[in-house]
Design brief:
398 residues; seven-stranded antiparallel beta sheet; single chain; five-stranded mixed beta sheet; alpha+beta
Length: 398
């Protein structure tokens, strides 16, 4: 997906919000239909039957007929795809969509003349029932675009994302392997010895966020004051999210350009960030500490980094078993839990090798994947002897 900042006028924004409302309404109806299904009953309606029901509903309700049929049908198509992922056990079951969260819609059958460039930094996209809407031309729009998605985040910003398969980053001529250890104190430690951190909110921004959260707790639910405070909080959160995404993009691009094979731990992040609150009958323990750990994992962008690496370097990302990577000495291979003297320091009690604990784990990850290398043409071959010393010095944004 190639995403761009959309710049609608107030009149256009009103119509875009109507499209979002229609898509949310149709999605929630589909969720309700499938929620009524019980074992032994007739199966819930599929996409074709729901489209027929949508045609009947549009004929009866004028407010629904005033909207775009493409927007409403694609909401049903998205739901059908979400249910297919749920039955394949790759995603969770689709749930209700609330106003103000995840607002957006998809447009298909886009023609070549539906996207045009107006000036150096301005482009326009044709949206049904809206007309030409301007967006910031930050980079060239991919050719052959057949669909796009318009969404609005909690900070009130509009974006348009054109569906296109990006070209993979070409592999370097060498067959070097790098290990990446993901953590919280250090977002990504490389086997080269570098330690990278995700840029977060500045000290003044964190203080302002804390004041806004306290102000939100005192605001009356449903009041205009509470809505303004929530909007200010959303803008700060969006700023932090944008910085994390920018860091992920730059870091993943640098790694894929400099190394032929990138080794990471095979972590189940969804399971690691699951809530520990438990149930009323069996409440969890240390819930606040676990919640803080979950926030730290998500703020470090573990999943985003690996996802972008796999997209930019298909077939060149190796996931290794994470067992004992933080307790094994990368020099002699001895596993000893007491060798990790602290969260940051590792000193082998057998050979005396000492370095940062996260860097040592990254070198163990690299050693686990050292049997694979990719040459410049993308073919697999066996790597030669692996030196635990840093291969090169990278200048990464951290």
């Amino acid at each position: 997906m190639s995403r761009y900042r959309l710049q609608p006028t107030p009149a256009q924004e009103a119509v875009l919000l109507e499209h979002c409302g229609h898509a949310r309404f149709v999605w929630n109806l589909a969720v309700e239909q499938h929620a009524q299904w019980k074992p032994g009953r007739k199966s819930a309606p599929g996409f074709a039957e729901q489209c027929r029901q949508l045609t009947e509903a549009r004929a009866e309700f004028e407010w629904l007929r005033a909207g775009s049929i493409i927007v409403q049908q694609q909401a049903l198509k998205d739901f059908a795809q979400a249910m297919a992922h749920y039955f394949a056990k790759t995603h969770r079951r689709p749930t209700w969509r609330r106003r103000g969260q995840g607002q957006g819609f998809r447009i298909v059958a886009v023609k070549a003349d539906h996207v045009r460039r107006v000036s150096r930094n301005v482009g326009e996209v044709k949206v049904p029932k809206v007309g030409w809407v301007r967006f910031r031309w930050s980079r060239a729009v991919p050719e052959g675009v057949k669909s796009y998605r318009v969404n609005r985040d909690r900070a009130g910003r509009w974006h348009v994302a054109f569906a296109a398969i990006p070209e993979p980053v070409p592999a370097p001529g060498s067959a070097e392997v790098v290990g990446v250890d993901r953590g919280i104190a250090i977002a990504a430690a490389l086997s080269t010895g570098e330690m990278l951190n995700v840029p977060t909110l500045r000290t003044a921004e964190k203080s302002r966020l804390l004041r806004l959260l306290r102000k939100l707790a005192r605001a009356k639910r449903g009041s205009n004051r509470r809505a303004k405070v929530k909007s200010a909080i959303a803008k700060l959160k969006a700023r932090e999210s944008d910085r994390r995404k920018d860091w992920v993009e730059k870091t993943s691009t640098t790694l894929t350009r400099c190394f032929a094979v990138i080794a990471v731990e095979n972590l189940k992040i969804a399971n690691m960030t699951r809530s520990a609150s438990g149930t009323l009958d069996a409440p969890g323990s240390k819930v606040r500490a676990k919640a803080g750990l979950n926030r730290g994992i998500l703020a470090a962008g573990w999943g985003q980094l690996v996802e972008r690496l796999e997209q930019k370097a298909p077939g060149r990302v190796i996931k290794v078993n994470s067992a004992y990577t933080s307790q094994r000495c990368s020099a002699c291979g001895i596993v000893d839990a007491k060798s990790r003297e602290s969260q940051a320091d590792f000193r082998c009690r057998s050979c005396g090798y000492a370095c940062n604990a996260d860097v040592n784990a990254a070198r163990n990850i690299r050693l686990a994947a050292a049997g694979h290398a990719v040459d410049a043409r993308g073919g697999d071959r066996t790597a030669g002897p692996v030196n635990r010393e840093p291969q090169r010095d990278l200048l990464l944004v951290g």
